[in-house]
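Problem 12. The chain below contains 380 residues. Write out its predicted structure in token notation.
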Amino acid sequence: MIELIHKNAQHLTLRDRLKVAEIRALKMNVGWLLSVQIAFVLFVFCRDYFYVSHQMPADPALSTLLETALVVIMAILCGYVAVLRFTRVLEKQFENVMLVITLSIGVMWCIILSLLFYSDFSHLIFAISTLLMLSSLIALYPSSRHLFFATTPIWAIIVVHAMFFSKTLSLVYLAGYLVFAVLFETGRRLLRRWFVLAVTREHQNVRLANKLTLMSQQDPLTALANRRHFDRELQQAIARATTTGHPLSIILIDVDYFKKYNDRYGHQAGDACLIQLAKRFQQAVRCAQDLVGRYGGEEFIILLPDQDKYAAERVAERLKDLVFTLALPHDQSDVSPYVSLSQGIAQWQNGVDAKTLIENADQALYLAKQQGRNTVRLAP
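Solution.
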């Protein structure tokens, strides 16, 4: 699922966007979480300085074991910080890295708290455990799986401590555990609900922005690129062609005797005709970067990056055949019993701007009309 981060965020589903938001939140919070873990390890390591009246049991082996465990765990936590801070963890690896970090945090604290059971500091286990879990909740609430891995070992220690190691297992003590468990779970659900709500609103805003952007770029009738969007794309294509030296061509298209078509069949039939023609225009182009636009009432235009005028001529002939197979009746046409097209092609030359290129295509289109329509002509 992590590869979803590499998708265009504008096209994510709500479920995918939630996944991306979870990873983004984990990236932001993991540094703080590790800092808190290091602070708690230092507190346990320096416990004798905070509680001078308490001493570890006489068994020096246990004391050495606890100190060694704390040093190793501190080194591991600092290693995590260094890896995340000074190396670039790949997106596809980050979720797995976080699973390792959260699970190891839970296991490491399980070890530390288990050793504390045998010390005079066992009365601090509940306080340390609850603070650890609250800090994990703050950092990991967007991802239930990572929160589960980080807190389950600590929850297990709390239960074991309450059942087998507590010297005074009173009703108040049990009530304290129960109250904390309820607060933890209700807090997790509340935070998760707000997280989902925030991501949902972000998703709705992105969809609305995409819709508005699309509306500003599309012709409302045919769903092709409108003139403003086409002009902008043409200027960008010319800029790229100027840099790369690759060819670029356009096809300017006019529906033959379309005014007569409207007069004969009505404007609704005329609109339906344009919609069907637009679909055929989209079928005629083969490359993803090709762009079909509606340039005027019955005028259309096609942008063909990386194609010379001869390749554009093949597209125009293919378009002519597609429209012929459509066989839309046009008994007012002087050139065909069906709707037909006149097309003018112009190839960009170095130093030619967008306006001049369109004028060249328009001259070729005019020549096609002068020479009988239903034909294709190339600009010199």
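Discussion. The chain has a mean pLDDT of 87. Students who got a different answer should revisit the alignment rule from Section 12.3.
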